[in-house]
Amino acid sequence: MLQRYPWVVRLDATCTYRCSICFEQKKNNVFTKPDGAHVLLNSELQRHQASEKHKTAELEQEAATKSVIQQSLAAMSAKAQAEAGPLEAKLMRCAFTTFKNNQSVSTYVDNAVLMAACDGASVKVAGPYQSRPAGMEMLDCLSEVIDEKEREAIQKSDFIALTIDESTDRTIKHNLAMYVSYIDDNGNVLNRYRKLEEIKGSANAKALFDLVKKALEDDGIDMKKIVGFTSDGASVMVGEHKGVAALLKKECPGVLSLHCAAHKLALSCADLFKGDEELLLLDGMISKIYGYFKVSPLRREDLRSLQELLKAKEYKLLKPHAVRWLSRARCIRRLKELYPVLLEYFKQETGPNAEAIYSWLKNAHNLILTYILDEILDVTARLSCCFQSSDLALVDVNTWLEGELKLLEMKFTYHKISGKGNLPPEFSKAINELLASLKESGGRWHGHDLHLSVQGTDEGAVSWATFGAELFRKKKYISTLCTDLIALIRERFPKEALGLAAHFRILSPEELAGVGDDEIEEYGLEDIKTLGEWYTGRIGHLREQWITRAVHKLVQAAKKAKKKAEEKDLPLLAREFYKKERGWLKAGAPEVWKLIQIMLVMQPASAEVERGFSAMNDIKSSERNLLDISTLDKLMRVRLCGPEIRIQHQAADRPPYEEFDACILPLALKHWHSKKRCPERSCHGPRPKRVKG
Questions:
Q1: pLDDT tier at 371, thresholds 50, 70, 90
Q2: 305-334: per-residue pLDDT in tens?
Q3: Which of 17, 290, 595, 662 is deepest in the core (most CB within 10 A)?
Q4: Rounded CA gap, 645 and 205, in Å?
Q5: Under a CB-based contact definition with an 8 Å cutoff, are residues 363 and 450 in contact?
Q6: Are 662 and 85 contacting, i.e. CB atoms less than 8 angstroms apart?
Q7: pLDDT at 417
Q8: Does any domain span residue 76?
């Protein structure tokens, strides 16, 4: 029994028991008495483990451990610098900074010379160091060390998930990026870059799967640990019989395939624009206005001068990108911000294009549509940002989705709240002020006379005499637009599409917090049964531990966490919640903890891969398009997985390179000495005496 409670210590002198954590943190309870606790009932141990004092003691112990670790890191850093000498340590930092900031290997030479000039006599850059080969050698060392540390952490994790995606770089080379998510020793869920492979020949599912399999085998990563696979939903990835996911499931039974949530949301918004004539016209007008200024530097300067003359905030027009998730929302926001300036600009322009743009801008319907669509897409953009968060867990997707869709319904459609039905749309203050201003002025806005027109499904003629907020609340077009968007999003996120993954919803902190006291006994039993059957062989005694050890405590913990989150106006996220609860789960309900780990490592979105591709394009710029795949892979590893160089907002006693010096520098220098630099043939030592003849 005591194996479930690792904090219990037996006092041999008195044959009693003590809580080591509470005693160390000086908490006052029955398990910290000088002579210990005489009673050792399972119920008493469970009650103590769930108590606030014990949880507080656990957090305090964790904080104290972190402090000790920081002191240890500082000591290791000082020792590494003392052993390495100032020259090698500073040059390795110089190389790391160069590659971390997406600079070229050649730039390392210039940075080393600059460092020597700034550092004076303590650093003298000798010939062998002041070269591109030296920079390449340091890159090799840094990449190897970071790769080894990540690989060891992944190998220790009980469960992992895989995210892959294809991309074409600046030189039209087809690459495959692989990311692995895992849980580290501190309970953090990390989604890390592993490998960039060039796709040679056909990019079919078999070729992609073979690349993934070989990369994992080369790293010594057990593929049987894979529980999740995330992709952009392309047929080559998720084809029912021959996709990468299907091939992976044959190799690793039990793998669940997920379609990136951010990608599905972007497709929903794209579908809305495809099916609506007014939105297509708005979309085309944004591109038309951008193109009008793009072709002429003189026009751009005139627009800038007009903004200055009108004392308007200076903005630049944004280029619409069909492949970028937030592009359309940002472009419409910028059109709204520039609307008065654009009206004034195109009023003075001549030519058919300028006149067509001015005529469109003068239509009050288009102005109001721009304001309303800005707020509609602002909700979807906020949702997209949530889906792209590195802290997003599988069970968080539905929580965010339902919250934002309810907000859309309240703002732009007739809706129900607490049983009260047919409540009108709740337009924002900005929209109501715009409508009131147009009605009072008879369509006069920023010195321009706007005109009204019948649009969409509106019936009958309209005039400024009947214009107002009530008219636009009743406009079928606006409510239909929002209703269609909500329907398209729900169509892309049906619960049945998740398949078995939908059963993990019982682990959502939001769901747990909403369980009533009379519902706890039956909560989640069917889902637990289904999940237990799916993971037979990996998880045992799941139902028993769920009923007797987990569900009551999880519900209580979720209710408390929900209350605290609401007080701080913060969301209740799964990864943060379970990180705090992992201590008692690992000790008291290990099989339930395994199930939770499986849920936590699965990635609901592939945004991390997209960020990696952005870094790839920054590294392989137009000036560095000759980088081979091996060097590009190493540079991406240092950039994406290397520790951050923390300069701003850092305490004076914590140097910018603290984490690098402690975790990477000693091992990188060890690699440098053993593999790259030879004392007999470099400035590390005197050259051997050579005998002629």
A1: very high
A2: 999 998 888 888 888 876 666 788 899 999
A3: 595
A4: 39
A5: yes
A6: no
A7: 66
A8: no
User: For residue 568, what are its two tokens?
Assistant: 């701080």
Largest CA distance in the chain: 109
Q: What is the pLDDT of residues 243-273, one digit of tens each?
A: 999 999 999 888 999 999 999 988 888 888 8
CA dihedral 364, 365, 369, 371 (to 10 degrees): 20
Mean pLDDT of 614-641: 86
**Residue at 118 is within a domain:** no
Residue 488 contacts residue 272 (beta carbons within 8 Å): yes
Q: Is residue 440 part of a domain?
A: yes
Please check whether residue 220 is in contact with residue 591, taking contact to mean a CB–CB distance below 8 angstroms: no
With cut-offs at 50, 70 and 90, classify the pLDDT of residue 693.
very low
Distances from the Cα of 373 to the Cαs of 359, 431, 447, 587, in angstroms? Answer: 20, 11, 24, 51
Distances (CA, A) of 591 to 154, 160, 225, 228, 546: 20, 17, 16, 18, 9
**Adjacent-strand bridge partners of 257:** 229
d(CA 595, CA 394): 13
The CA distance from 426 to 415, in Å, is: 10
Residue 405 near residue 411 (C-beta atoms within 8 A): no
Of the listed ranges 271-285, 468-482, 510-524, the one predicted with least confidence:
468-482
In whole angstroms, give the CA distance from residue 687 to residue 188.
49
In single-letter form, the type of residue at position 636 comes to: M
C-beta of residue 113 within 8 angstroms of C-beta of residue 125: yes
Q: Of 444, 467, 491, which one is at a domain's C-terminal end? A: 491
Helix (H, G, I), strand (E, B) or coil at 671: helix
Instruction: Tell me how far apart the alpha carbons of residues 410 and 423 are, in angstroms, rounded to a whole number.
Output: 8
Cβ proximity of 140 and 150 under 8 Å: no
Distances in Å between the Cα of 451 and the Cα atoms of 434, 445, 472, 474, 478 are 15, 11, 15, 19, 18
Question: For position 324, what pLDDT does the model report?
Answer: 65
Q: In which region does residue 605 sit, left (phi positive, over 0), alpha (psi from -120 to 50) or beta (all else)?
A: beta
The token pair at 115 is 């460092």
Which contiguous run of DSSP H or E holds residue 616? helix 607-619
Question: Residue 76 is encoded by which pair of tokens?
Answer: 């290791």
Q: Is 5 helix (H, G, I), strand (E, B) or coil?
A: coil
> How would you class 94 by CB atoms within 10 Å of its CB: exposed for 0-12, middle for 13-18, buried for 19 or more?
buried
Print the domain residue range for 29. 1-50
Same domain, 575 and 632: no
State the Cα–Cα distance between residues 89 and 673, nearest whole angstrom.
12
Q: Are 296 and 242 part of one and the same domain? A: no
Alpha helices of 442-518 — where are they, by DSSP H? Answer: 469-473, 476-492, 509-513
Indicate whether 103 belongs to any domain: no
Contact between residue 335 and residue 373 where contact means Cβ atoms under 8 Å apart: no
Distance of CA 587 to the CA centre of its chain: 30
CA distance 210 to 205: 9
692: which residues sit within 8 A by CB, 6+ positions away? none
Please report the DSSP string for 285-347 in residue order.
HHHHHHHHHHT-HHHHHHHHHHHHHTTPPP--PPPP-TTSTTHHHHHHHHHHHHHHHHHHHHH
Task: Report whether pLDDT(652) > 50.
Answer: no
Q: Both tokens of residue 154?
A: 């992944």
Give the distance from CA 510 to its chain's centroid: 20
pLDDT class for 225, splitting at 50, 70, 90? very high
